[in-house]
Structures are given as structure tokens and as C-alpha cells.
Amino acid sequence: MARAAVVVSDTTGALIRSFRPRSTYPQDYTPFLQALSRTPDGNLYFAMHENAQLFPPNLFNVFEPNRLHVYKLDTSLNVLCEHIVDGFADNAYYYLNRIKATDDGGFMLMGGRRNFDDPSGYFEAWARKFGPSDCTVGVEERQTAAGATLFPNPGREGFTLLLNGEALQGTLLLHDALGRACGSVPIRQGQARFDAQALATGVYVYHAQDMKGRTLATGWWVKE
């Protein structure tokens, strides 16, 4: 269910380039009314759900958190900076209707929010204003409830993942910012080492899973 921003020729209609971010979650989705908004400086804000749960059996029966991922793009669709609203961190699901660039260079997100700590299970109207400084070049690592440590971050030659207090076996996968697979290594006794010397500089997403494919940790690593 991934969506994209595309640049199309105004004379021939031919596709010139596209931006198709993919997270490590099973389903991504854009906001339902407006996913793209132009900034005062002529750039673009693009928003998407990660871990979207649209049909099980309907939106109002969502059963686990999600994330909202905002990208600032130039008109060639290069990523300038990013911001993540992490529902896993506050045990919430965010229903996003639209993103709107603001005059100060920031953006607003508008939609709904379900707090899983609230036994009523109701969605509430939700909107939040973000400033230009909230869009950062290197998105900070997100830690799951199980806890994980990633170092060095940023790094040049690679990184080590430690699942805090967990001697688990599994697989560590790495993708680039467009969702393309960059390799995988085994997790043994809660540890894994990823050699990234051959990778280009940039932002990467890591995804650690156990032997049954269940998520142990996910987050970001920046190669200098």
C-alpha cells in the first residue's frame, strides 16, 4: 500500500523521477486527504503512515501503534530532512488526514489519535504544529520496549546492535531511506555486527527480528 511523490513532464506526461519511501513495517500509507504540501521556500513536505492498519476490519479497531514519517524534499525529490511521530513510544495510533506547510518553514499534522492506555478505545481529534528545527538530517534511533542499543551512530564502517538484557537469536536487516534492502546479518545471543563499509553515506533503517519474524527493535543509523 506504499504511495509515492512523482515528478511528471508538463509537456509529455512522462515520469521523470519518483520518491517511494518504504518502512520496515508490513503496510505504509499516505494521509487520506493531503500527503504533500509546498513550503514557502519552494520545497515540499511529504507525509506517510508506517505500520498502517486500515482494514482489520476497520480503522477504529486498530490493535497496535504506528508511526508518522515526514520527509522534507526538494523539487528533485531529494530528502533534505525528516521527522517521526513515534506511536510506539507513547502507545498510540495516529490517524493522519493531512500535512500542511506553515509560513515559518515548519508544518502541521492533522487527524486523530487513539491512546491504547485508555480503556474506552476512542479516537480523539488530533493536530500538532512542528517548527522547521523539528525536521532533522539524522533521525534519532527508536528503541522498542524490549530495549536496544546501537553504536556508533553516526558511524562509518558499520555498527553493533545490542538487545539489552535479551540473549535472543534472529536477524538484523538494513534498508536505505527508499526501502531498498542493503543486507542482513544474524543476531546471536542478542548481538549483531553489521559491516557497512560498502554502503554510501546517508540514513538507513534497521530492523531486528526474532526467529519467528517478530519485531525486536527498529530504528535509524546514519553513515557518515
Short description:
The chain is mainly beta and 224 residues long. It has one helix at residues 87-90; strands spanning 5-8, 15-19, 28-29, 36-38, 44-50, 67-73, 79-86, 92-101, 107-115, 123-130, 148-151, 158-163, 170-176, 181-187, 191-195, 202-210, 215-223.
Quick one: how many beta strands?
A: 17
Report helical residue fraction: under 10%
Using the CA coordinates, give the radius of gyration. 18 Å
What count of structural domains?
2
Structural class: mainly beta
* CA(first)-CA(last) distance: 31 Å
In round numbers, the mean pLDDT is 84
Shape: globular
What is the count of helical runs?
1
- Major β-sheet, in short? 5 strands, antiparallel
Give the helices and strands as they follow along the chain.
Answer: EEEEEEEHEEEEEEEEEE
Contiguous low-pLDDT stretches (5 residues minimum) are 140-146
Strand content: over 45%
Q: What would your notes on this structure say?
A:
This protein is mainly beta and 224 residues long. The protein folds into two domains: 5-134, no CATH class; 148-223, Immunoglobulin-like, CATH 2.60.40.1220. It is built from one helix and 17 strands. The strands form five sheets. Strands 3, 4, 5, 6 and 7 form a five-stranded antiparallel sheet that branches. A four-stranded antiparallel sheet has the order 14-13-16-17, with no helix packed on it. The chain is globular.
